Amino acid sequence: MGGTVNSLNTNVDLTVRIYDQFYEYEQFVSAEEYDVVFSYMKSVFTTDLAAGNFTVALFRIADTTQTSVLTILSNIQGQNSIQVTQTLAYYLNNLRSTSTLLGFGALSTPNYYTARNVLA
Question: Among 16, 18, 70, 112, which residue has the fewest nearby CB atoms (within 10 Å)?
């Protein structure tokens, strides 16, 4: 029996390593899922860099919330780049400290008595 183009080679690693040096974040994901998400992000955003960053963000959200990345992707399909940005900012803000929220243009004013005790 000869091999076909569609047969899997189990000797080849079928995962993609996602890493972010700034946040010291690393994750291994299915190459097929990565391709699906990255392809969608490329259709929404104008640059490969933006698509790549949003792809990593989506996988990080999926990992942290223990939700399938394809489930989250199905929830954002049909949205334009601004809507996708808002949706992912919402998810990421739930994972971050409240002092480093994404997507807010106005500065938050700290409590006077708390701010007074902070040494610069």
Answer: 112
Closest alpha carbon to 54 in 83, 96, 94, 15: 83
Low-confidence ranges of the chain (pLDDT < 70): 1-13, 22-23, 96-120
* Residues whose CB falls within 8 Å of the CB of residue 58, separated by 6 or more in sequence, listed in order: 37, 41, 69, 72, 73, 88
Does residue 10 form part of some domain? no
- 61 membership: H or E segment, kind and range: helix 48-65
pTM attached to this predicted model:
0.68
Would 91 be classed as within a structural domain? Answer: yes
Residue numbers of the domain that contains 61: 15-116
Whole-number pLDDT of residue 4: 41
In a domain, 42, yes or no: yes
